[in-house]
Structure prediction request, 230 residues.
Amino acid sequence: DAGVIQSPRHEVTEMGQEVTLRCKPISGHDYLFWYRQTMMRGLELLIYFNNNVPIDDSGMPEDRFSAKMPNASFSTLKIQPSEPRDSAVYFCASTRDNNQPQHFGDGTRLSIL
Amino acid sequence: AQKITQTQPGMFVQEKEAVTLDCTYDTSDPSYGLFWYKQPSSGEMIFLIYQGSYDQQNATEGRYSLNFQKARKSANLVISASQLGDSAMYFCAMREGLGGGGNKLTFGTGTQLKVEL
Prediction:
């Protein structure tokens, strides 16, 4: 079975540009999560969806960040405008239900110059 | 207060020896789950083992076992017969509560394990 698929794997862009990260969860998983990992703050949950509906976005840093899940097999995390402090590894994860582990994608390494 | 505490930033173990990675947690919720993930230098997050708060027995998965001491609020990961490929960062995480609001994972700061010959 295919795991969680994220694209791109690496992204380097200049500050002020729009960045879009993509995620395809494991088929049949009703929950989708976006995390950010930095040296300073570790792994932080940004937002999660259940059945394509955003449930908790309290971790989204500011209005420059937005996330959507238009259908069960696709989600995006958008940063506009991007800033150097947004540089991090962004992970997408999915799970079937509350008692199951979250399965992570390989992450997107984002560098904002 | 930290919800998940991993007090060992780095650990060394000799190949074929067992190693224990510490994790303590803080919650007032009677229903919670504890997870361990491995992150090798390549960066992916790999699920290792899960323990539910109501589970009567300690979880085991191959060479991984979880030493769950509920009264002490600790959930230490034990890796037996360490291998060079076990060298990685290890994260403890907790999920509190049930239902849609209870699916958030809170992660510790991680322990970097190095297996030596």
